[in-house]
Every structure is written in C-alpha cells, then in structure tokens.
Amino acid sequence: MHTNLSFPKSKPEGFFRTLHSRVNTYFKENNINKTGDIRMYTKTTLMLLLYFIPFVLLLSGVITSWWVLLAYLVMGVGMSGIGLCIMHDANHGSYSKNKIVNQLMSYTINLVGGSSFTWKIQHNVLHHTFTNVYEIDEDIDDKPFLRLSPHGKIKWYHKFQHVYALAVYSLATLSWTLYKDFKQLVNYNKDGLTIKNGFHPTRETLAMIGYKATYFFIILALPMLLGISWYIVLLGFIVMHLFAGLYITMIFQLAHVVEGPEHTNATDEGDSMENTWAIHQILTTANFSTKSKFMTYISGGLNHQIEHHLFPNICHVHYPQIAKIVKQTVQEFNLPYYEHQQFIGAIKSHLKMLKQFGNASQLAVG
Fold first, then answer.
1. Per residue in 160-193, is it b (16+ CB within 10 Å) or e — as a string?
2. Which residues are registered as beta bridge partners of 134?
C-alpha cells in the first residue's frame, strides 16, 4: 500500500486557506459551534429507536411469525441511520465538542456489526486523504465482481457490472460484518497502520473478536433462544443487512464514482501528488440532491460530500449553510464543483461510469 505519498503545501493566498478563513468567520459571526446541536441529538434518538424498538418488540413476543421480517426491515432503516447519521460524524470527531461523547457515539457502528477501529483507518485516514487514488483508497479497490476505478484490473464479467452492481452493493454490510473487518484488521496490523494511528494490534484484535461475538449472539442467537424460528431470524437478519448495505453503499458511491470526479493511480504519482490536498478533494468528489431536505436528513448530510471532504471536522447539520461559501470560493478559484441535482440522476451517472469502467475496448486492461 503506497501510503508515503505527500501533498504540496497550500499557499497563503491559496484556495483552502481562503475557504477555511471564510468558513471560520461564518461560525464565529453567527456564534455557532462546528459540532452537533439539538438537530443531531434528536436524529440520534430517532435512528437508535428505529433500530432497537423493533428488536425489543420481537424479543418480547409482541411481534411474531413472519411479521418479524418487517421488524428486521425497520431495523435496517435504523442501522443505515446509525451508520450515516451518527457513527460517521462521531468517528470524525464532529458529533460533539466533547471527545468522550465522540468516542462513545463512534462505537454505535459496533452495535450494528461493524468496527469503529477499521472504519477510522479505512475511511478517515485512507479514503479522506487519498480520495479516488487507486492502490490506497480502499473504497475503489478491486472487489469481487466490481471494477470501481479505471486503473483496476479488468475481467470479462465487468462489462455487465452496471447491471448487477446494485445487487452486489446490498451485500456490503454483510461482507463488512462477516469478513472485511477481519481482513482489514490483519492488513493494518501487518502494514503498521494500526500502531501508526495510535492503536494497539493485540488490543484491537481481542476487542473485535469480543464485539463481533456479542453482536452475533444478541442479533441471531438470542431471538432463537427466546423461541423465534431460526429460519425467520436468519432471513430477517439478511433482509436487514441487504437494505442497509444497498442504501449506505449507494450514498458513498454517488460521491466519487460518477461523471466528473477524477481517478488517479498511486503508482503514477511518484512521491508527491500533483495538487494540494483540498484541491484534490474538489477534483475527486461530487454532491447530489442537495436541495432536498429529506435526502440531506436521511443521508447524514453526505449528499453534501464536497463540504464533508473539505471539512470532515464539521458536523453534517451545518453543511447546507457552508455549501454556499464553498461554492462561491470554488468558482472564484476557477475550480470545478461537481453536482447532480437529483438523486436518480446521480444513480444514472454512477451506472454509466460502471459501464464505462467495465468496457475493455475503451480502457486498458490492468
């Protein structure tokens, strides 16, 4: 993994220093804290209730038979909300100005079968630093049946990936829960990223085993022990993950694998990236459906992905306001601001890029 790449330093009169100053002025003049507020706390309550109430109802026998599947589907909605609207901000340290609160809320990903530890390295460190850089950004790594970068290895079946991609995306959280977290843990320990980022390999390994065992006992074994048929529980568990996997993955894919954002290869970059970090984020990121308050709410503000990549330390509830500042500054510096007005338009653009990435006649085989 090529993690020794560096970015040129920003000039005093440069884009990000100007933008950073303007955004700071906005918060100072309006006497607003950059972290979460009552909107964040009420959303947290809602998403946690959507996850836990159906589960308590099925455990207590209020919900029985095949209605259990509906309960698990609602849990999938809550699970998506926990991932997009709670743990994401918390792991970036933008949920609260209190570090202990951020740490506690970051563990909500463990409640839904994930790992706060692997997320912080894979997402915060690798993805947010080297966005769309093949061989570093794991979001665009070669995956089973998917080629998400023009620099990836191409297989014959990739020419159909725009047809089956959504089905594969629905398996994402199942993969993270059952396999990917463990694979990342082993790789990060071996590559030294665990220690480099302030974690202890042995402690994180034991913690992951403990979290995962507890999760599977509560979410699968406990309902069965309380009398719910094993096949209904297993099917419900799968339904929950299929919904969450599809929705969460789509939100992230529409930010980087659409028309507009650039893709680079770590091998071609040498020791230094061509652009400063902030400009790199602008060139590799896109927004979608930002005028929809509903989409902004349920996506955890990640439809404002440009603002998130430039200011991951700012809570997502503030993105609609600072987006105006970002867009104005981007235009002044003659930089692109990639954006799809509608959610469906972004999906179409994503599928178009998948079709292009899977066309061996247009792209060199990796």
1. ebbeebbebbbbbbbbbbeebbbebbebbbeeeb
2. 265
Region 235-245: mean pLDDT is 97
Query: Rg of the chain's alpha carbons, rounded to an integer?
Result: 21
Per the CB < 8 A criterion, the answer to whether 180 and 186 are in contact is no
List C-alpha distances in Å: 2 to 136, 149, 265: 6, 16, 10
pTM of the model: 0.92
In contact, 83 and 107? CB cutoff 8 Å: no
- SS3 at position 222: helix
Which residue matches tokens 């980087």? 256
Q: How many CB atoms lie within 10 A of CB 63?
A: 20
- Identify the weakest region by mean pLDDT among 23-32, 120-129, 235-244, 334-343: 120-129
Please write the tens of the pLDDT for every residue from 33-80.
999 999 999 999 999 999 999 999 999 999 988 899 999 999 999 999
Residue whose pair of structure tokens reads 């090529």 in the numeric block? 2
pLDDT at 365 over 70: no
Number of helical (H) and strand (E) elements in the chain, helices listed first: 21, 4
Give the pair of three-digit tokens for residue 131: 């966005």
H/E run at residue 296: helix 293-298
Residue with tokens 């009169």: 13
User: Are the CB atoms for 246 and 174 separated by under 8 Å?
Assistant: no
Length of the chain as a residue count: 366
Q: Which residues neighbour 46 within 8 Å (Cβ) at sequence distance 6 or greater? A: 81
Residue 340: which H helix or E strand, with range?
A: strand 338-340
Helix (H, G, I), strand (E, B) or coil at 133: strand
d(CA 267, CA 83): 32
Q: Which residues contact 135 (CB under 8 A, 6 or more apart)?
A: 1, 2, 151, 265, 266, 267
pLDDT score of 327 more than 60: yes
For residue 2, is pLDDT > 60? no
